[in-house]
UniProtKB/TrEMBL annotation:
Domain Myosin motor residue range list: 64-755
Gene3D superfamilies: 1.10.10.820, 1.20.5.190, 1.20.58.530, 3.30.70.1590, Kinesin motor domain (3.40.850.10), Myosin VI head, motor domain, U50 subdomain (1.20.120.720)
Parts of the chain that traverse the membrane: none
Coiled-coil boundaries: 1125-1244
Protein residues bound to ATP: G158, E159, S160, G161, A162, G163, K164, T165
Region (Disordered): 1072-1098, 1251-1271
Record keyword Zinc present: no
Sorted UniProt keywords: Actin-binding, ATP-binding, Calmodulin-binding, Coiled coil, Motor protein, Myosin, Nucleotide-binding, Repeat
Cellular-component GO terms for this entry: cytoplasm; membrane; myosin complex; Schaffer collateral - CA1 synapse
Entry's Gene Ontology BP terms: actin filament organization
Name the UniProt record assigns to this protein: Unconventional myosin-Vb-like
Length: 1340
């Protein structure tokens, strides 16, 4: 084997792994490898001779960028990291398969790959047909649920900021789109609407993520038989409650706090007392309270809209916001230290304490006291102990965390209730959005629980992958051999086994003085020999656990406090007694909570709790420890996941700066190790990781086969023959039924053989092609050379011809030039010769001069005649030209030429004329304006002159004008009188017409009455059969209403009973603690001020029997319960209200009877008879209910009497007891009077019914029939005088009572109260009695 030119991966401190090429062949025993890096630098890589570990081989370039990491030939960490980096940075693909795991890298950028059309594109497709996507995983889960009829789960994990919540949200969006509800319930919209609510109350800003989920959730989406969404259910895990009271730097509290503060200016939130988030301690510890690009007010509107969509009432929403605001006010309490911090207190005037108590509806004084004190219960006594400043702050923070946790659970329960359906669920798909493995500089209890959960999930993941591998091998018929993979069961046993970390933690929490240091010491002693547990060298309070992903050091400080989650019972009891029902329900324990009405098959089921409270153990634990609860919920989650088919999504955070498409190899490989992707690859690599189907293998490697083998039809036999020839070791591959399995590296070996084959074929092809190319090039050069030679020779021939032509021309020019020179020389010689000859001859001929002159004269004559002929010819020519010009002047063309200039002149003149016309027009307009102005001024002057003249004449004519005015007014008065007469005439006529019309209508009315009577008789016959069914329906409705009222009464009775227990405990503590007694009237005022109707569920019966029973016991032993008397008073008020209602109904009946006697006869009487029957039935029901209430009151009296026998009262209470006994007797007498009045009213109703029956036989009903004494006239002045007298007497009584109370005379005040008991004014009587009782308690 040659290693030269192979590509390998070597470790690198910056990029984790770096690619290099081997430049020198490696031989066994060499201490180093000679490598060349990608930047062409040489590097010597040392080799460990003992371990003989060579660097990892790099995959061929053809395999880089694969959709599935398991398709790589070499499966190891650098190959996986490089493949993810190439896909993420070069192709911008954020999803990659790793077997059954989908690896999702957060791009920190919005990508257009989640639209509706993308969902429909992935719907119905197989998982490997399209690119990796979260929709592909969701479609695979949906398809397997429909195909296999088995529940599915999608497990989304990763560290904070990796995109878990977004991936889970997109998966739910896919299910909501593909499996939309068949009905109009819009359940998929509700499923999606739960996301903004859970993000508001469960997400917060951290240093790693602006919207980090601080809890885990498992959402089950239910489907029916047709696989439509019918409902959903949500379970949450380990809410980070510590964030409510503490935030690190650059972090925030939960979003809902800032959203509510941002919307505090809304009018409906004025009563919450909120301002900006910087003003509250619980929201300002992290520094900056805002997030870039996030509008808290807008998000708050989305949260409220989601609440409304899920059916949360407006009143419940306001209560939720009140509780959240109360938590903020609780954090701003000013706690004042006393006695060097050993004790502390909260001012009663603290504004935030008042807001906290008013928002939650609890007692101000009780909350002020129990915030700074705690109760210690022993077998003998109960002590109230003051707490130190540190303890009070911890108790306050624990209370705030507990309130928020209970509110969080209530909201989750309400969301589940809104998403619940009555349709039977056929199957479900669960989406688990849970925290990933975490390790920080300081790791506490939260990180311990998170990593414990990830250990359990990793174990489930490993077993599932191992199981899939085994199923694949069994299906293909491959011999199964055990694969060695990492099993983290020892680490899980270290945490959750008997006497493990959680057990020792719970045990230390039960110790009264247990500390974190003691717990850490127990861990050192117990688990020092464990291979997954280590003790740090430099710390005695920390411990190290070797998790599957990394080694984590935990600080034990705070483990006990967070595991206990201590909330003092006294504070919870105060919250249970809140006047707001929702606040009280938040803190009711499950076994004490009143169950809601369960409707099944149309029959309501009412669960009634016993009126006698169960015995409560003193200072019992409020709940189980957090670790125990988390362990139970985690086991339940594991059972659910093991019962489903899981699908895994591992989210990776590429960088810590939240920059888009930036890949940090260090952070990525750390998360790959933690999320189990590399473990999946290692398990796959331990067996046969590479798998090829026979057709794919045949198509890929057919180049390695012979022509003789290719002629066969059996592809499987061809593949077997090829592999047996190429790979000699039979353990390196196995033949399955449909696939061929290869060991790691065998596919790369086949790829190398395939590449060598292709390389040889390529060399042959290159040789042939290069020869052909060179031959073609030679021929092309030869043709070009011949062409160039042809052109060159032609050019040379042309040049030679031109040279010859020029040479011949030069010779000819030389010849002609020489000839010319010779001729000129000859002519010069000749001319000279002639000249000499002429002079010579002239000298010789001087004798012939006259002949010469004659010749000259003749020549002159010839010149004259010649010149005359020329002048004649010129004159003739000029005359001909003149005639031609005259003819031309008479032609049209000549005229046109002349007119051209004239037209231009005419146009210019026309322009001048227009300009002058415009100027003339302007001048005319100015002239007209001047004339009009002149005329107007003249007329104005004329008018002024006339007015002046009239003013002079007006004095004389004024009398005449006054007379004319009087005449005019007189005429108008006469005309008005005439119009009045006309109006009176028309009014009289219209009145006559109206009277006539009324008479006609009365006649028609009588006719209609007759027809009505006939129709009523028919309707009565027909409606007799329907009355029974309608009455039954009405009775059922009333029964349902009564049952719901009774349920509310039971709930309110439970809350009041809790408040009574609180006050009773306080009274016992006050009695046992000297110098710290409270006014016992607080208990009575606490229960008397309540407006709950559940107190008044009994009627006073035989009160004298109870009084006699108390007298038999004795005055010293008897003790009167204040609540009994107040209940009796309240019952008297209710009886008075019932009497008034009956009186009002009686008066109403009288009016109806009067009207019916005038208008209706028979039909109305029958309807009133039905009303009377209904009233009688209602009265019977009230009587039966009163009997039940009497029985309950008798039981209450017996309980009070038994209590009185056990308690010994002092002599100071005898007077007040006698007074209360007298008041009870007077109340009993007053009740008897009310009973007599009710009997009188009943007798009057019976008489009215008898009169109606007698009136049916009368033909003419008297319209003046009335009740007795109804026509008695009462003068208005007498009534006013009587009313004033009654008011005066009431004032006098109140004044004397106040004087008696405030002068310190309780006997006189009690006497006045007894006198007022006989009064008929129930409200005034109860008010005075309460006042007297409170003052008498103070004086006593």
């Amino acid at each position: 084997i040659t290693y030269k030119n192979l590509l390998v991966w070597i470790p690198d401190p910056d990029e984790v792994w770096r690619s290099a090429e081997i430049i020198k062949d490696y031989k066994e025993g060499d201490k180093s490898l000679q490598l060349k890096l990608e930047d062409e630098t040489l590097y010597e890589y040392p080799i460990d001779l003992q371990g003989n570990e060579l660097p990892f081989l790099r995959n061929p370039d053809i395999l880089v960028g694969q959709n599935d990491l398991t398709a790589l030939s070499y499966l190891h960490e650098p190959a996986v990291l490089h493949n993810l980096k190439v896909r993420f940075l070069e192709s911008n693909h954020i999803y990659t398969y790793c077997g059954i795991v989908l690896v999702a890298i957060n791009p920190y950028e919005q990508l257009p790959i989640y639209e509706q059309d993308v969902i429909y594109a992935y719907s119905g497709q197989n998982m490997g047909d399209m690119d990796p996507h979260i929709f592909a995983v969701a479609e695979e889960a949906y398809k397997q649920m429909a195909r296999d009829e088995k529940n599915q789960s999608i497990i989304v994990s990763g560290e904070s900021g990796a995109g878990k919540t977004v991936s889970a949200k997109y998966a739910m969006r896919f299910f909501a789109t593909v499996g939309g509800s068949a009905s109009e319930t819009n359940i998929e919209a509700k499923v999606l609407a739960s996301s903004p609510i859970m993000e508001a109350i469960g997400n917060a800003k951290t240093t790693r993520n602006d919207n980090s989920s601080r809890f885990g959730k498992y959402i089950q989406i239910g489907f029916d038989k047709r696989y439509h969404i019918i409902g959903a259910n949500m379970r949450t895990y380990l809410l980070e409650k510590s964030r409510v009271v503490f935030q690190a730097e650059d972090e925030r509290n939960y979003h809902i706090f800032y959203q509510l503060c941002a919307s505090s200016s809304l009018p409906e939130f004025k009563d919450l007392g909120l301002t900006c988030a910087e003003d509250f301690f619980y929201t300002s510890q992290g520094g900056d309270t805002s997030i870039d690009g996030v509008d808290d007010a807008d998000d708050f509107e989305k949260t409220r809209h989601a609440f409304t969509l899920l059916g949360v009432k407006e009143s419940h929403q306001m209560t939720i916001f009140r509780i959240i605001a109360a938590i903020l006010h609780l954090g701003n309490l000013e706690i004042q230290g006393e006695r060097d911090g050993e004790a502390c207190s909260v001012s009663s005037e603290d504004e935030h304490l008042s807001n906290f108590c008013s928002l939650l509806g609890v007692e101000h004084s009780q909350m002020q006291h129990w915030l700074c004190h705690r109760k210690l219960v022993t077998t003998a006594e109960t002590y109230v102990k003051s707490m130190s400043l540190h303890q009070v702050v911890n108790a306050r923070n624990a209370l705030a965390k507990h309130i928020y946790a209970q509110l969080f659970n209530w909201i989750v329960q309400h969301i589940n209730k809104a998403l619940h359906t009555t349709v039977k669920q056929h199957s479900f798909i669960g989406v688990l959005d849970i925290y990933g493995f975490e390790t920080f500089e300081v790791n506490s209890f939260e990180q311990f629980c998170i990593n414990y959960a990830n250990e359990k999930l990793q174990q489930q993941f490993n077993s599932h992958v191992f199981k899939l591998e085994q199923e694949e091998y069994m299906k293909e018929g491959i011999p199964w051999t055990l694969i060695d993979f990492y099993d983290n069961q020892p680490c899980i046993d270290l945490i959750e086994a008997k006497l493990g970390i959680l057990d020792l933690l719970d045990e230390e929490c039960k110790v009264p003085k247990g500390t974190d240091q003691n717990w850490a010491q127990k861990l050192y002693d117990r688990h020092a020999t464990s291979q997954h547990f280590q003790k740090p060298r430099m710390s005695n309070t920390s411990f190290i656990i070797l998790h599957f992903a990394d080694k984590v050091e935990y600080q034990s400080e705070g483990f006990l406090e967070k595991n206990r989650d201590t909330v003092y019972e006294e504070q919870i009891n105060i919250l249970k007694a809140s006047k707001y029902q929702m606040v009280a329900d938040l803190f009711q324990e499950e076994k004490e909570a009143v169950p809601a009405t369960a409707v099944r098959k149309g029959t309501p089921r009412i669960s009634v709790r016993s009126a006698r409270p169960a015995f409560k153990a003193a200072n019992k634990e409020h709940r189980k420890t957090v670790g125990h609860q988390f362990r139970n919920s985690l086991h339940l989650l594991m059972e659910t996941l093991n019962a489903t088919t899981p699908h895994y999504v591992r989210c990776i955070k590429p960088n810590d700066e939240k920059l888009p498409f930036k890949f940090d190899p260090k952070r990525a490989v750390q998360q790959l190790r933690a999320c189990g992707v590399l473990e999946t690859i290692r398990i796959s690599a331990a067996g046969f990781p590479s798998r090829w189907s026979y057709p794919d293998f045949f198509n890929r490697y057919r180049v390695l086969m012979n022509k003789r083998d290719l002629c066969k039809n059996d592809k499987r036999q061809i593949c077997q023959t090829l592999l047996e020839d190429l790979i000699k070791d039979p353990d390196k591959f196995q033949f399955g039924r449909t696939k061929i399995f290869f060991r790691a590296g065998q596919v790369a070996y086949l790829e190398k053989l395939r590449a060598d084959k292709f390389r040889a074929a390529t060399i042959m092809i290159q040789k042939t092609v290069r020869g052909w190319l060179q031959r073609a090039k030679y021929q092309r050069l030869r043709r070009a050379t011949l062409t160039l030679q042809c052109y060159a020779r032609r050019h040379l021939a042309r040049r030679l011809f031109e040279h010859l032509r020029r040479t011949r021309a030069a010779i000819i020019l030389q010849k002609q030039y020489r000839m010319l020179r010779m001729r000129q020389a000859f002519l010069r010689v000749r001319n000279a010769t002639l000249t000499i000859q002429a002079f010579a001859r002239g000298i010789c001929c001087t004798d012939d001069l006259p002949g010469t002159m004659l010749v000259e004269h003749k020549a002159t004559i010839l010149q004259k005649y010649a010149r005359g002929w020329l002048c004649h010819w010129r004159r003739l020519r000029a005359r001909r030209q003149l005639q031609a010009l005259r003819i031309e002047a008479r032609s049209a063309q000549h005229l046109k030429k002349l007119n051209i200039g004239m037209e231009n002149k005419v146009v210019q003149l026309q322009r001048k004329v227009d300009e002058q016309n415009k100027e003339n027009k302007l001048l005319n307009e100015q002239l007209s304006m001047l004339t009009s102005a002149h005329s107007s001024e003249v007329e104005k002057l004329k008018k002024e002159l006339q007015q002046y003249q009239q003013t002079q004449q007006g004095d004389g004519n004024q009398l005449l004008s006054l007379q004319e005015e009087m005449e005019r007014l007189r005429m108008e008065l006469e005309r008005a009188h005439g119009e009045r007469e006309v109006m009176e005439d028309s009014h009289s006529k219209e009145r006559d017409l109206l009277r006539k019309r009324i008479s006609d209508l009365e006649e028609e009315n009588t006719l209609l009455k007759q027809e009505k009577e006939e129709l009523n008789s028919r309707i009565l016959c027909q409606s007799e059969g329907r009355k029974n069914s309608e009455e039954n329906i009405q009775m059922k409705k009333e029964l349902e209403e009564e049952r719901s009222r009774y349920q509310n009464l039971v709930k309110e009775y439970a809350s009041l009973e809790q408040r009574y227990d609180n006050l009773r405990d306080e009274m016992t503590i006050i009695k046992q603690t000297p110098g710290h007694r409270r006014n016992p009237s607080n208990q009575s005022s606490l229960e008397s001020d309540s407006n709950n109707p559940s107190i008044c569920t009994s009627e006073i019966g035989d009160t004298e029997d109870v009084i006699q029973q108390v007298e038999e016991i004795g005055m010293e032993k008897a003790a009167m319960d204040m609540t009994l008397f107040l209940k009796l008073q309240k019952r008297v008020r209710e009886l008075e209200l019932e009497r008034r209602k009956l009186q009002a109904q009686l008066e109403k009946k009288e009016q109806e009877i009067k009207k019916s006697q005038v208008i209706e006869t028979k039909t109305e009487v029958s309807s009133e008879h039905e009303d009377f029957a209904y009233n009688s039935l209602k009265r019977q029901e009230l009587e039966s209910e009163n009997k039940k209430l009497k029985n309950e009151l008798n039981e209450l009296r017996k309980a009070i009497a038994d209590h009185a026998m056990q308690n010994n009262s002092s002599n100071d209470v005898q007077d007040s007891y006698n007074l209360l006994l007298n008041q009870l007797k007077s109340a009993n007498e007053e009740l008897e009077v009310r009973k007599e009045e009710v009997l009188i009213l009943r007798s009057q109703i019976m008489k009215a019914a008898q009169q109606k029956e007698t009136g049916e036989n009368m033909e003419n009903v008297s319209p003046n029939a009335s009740w007795p004494n109804s026509d008695r006239h009462v003068d208005q002045e007498d009534a006013i005088e009587a009313y004033q007298g009654m008011c005066e007497t009431n004032r006098l009584e109140l004044f004397q009572l106040d004087r008696a109370v405030f002068s310190g005379n309780p006997q006189r005040a009690c006497a006045w109260a007894v006198c007022l008991q006989s009064s008929s004014n129930i409200k005034r009587k109860s008010l005075l009695v309460n006042k007297v009782l409170s003052e008498s308690h103070i004086l006593l």
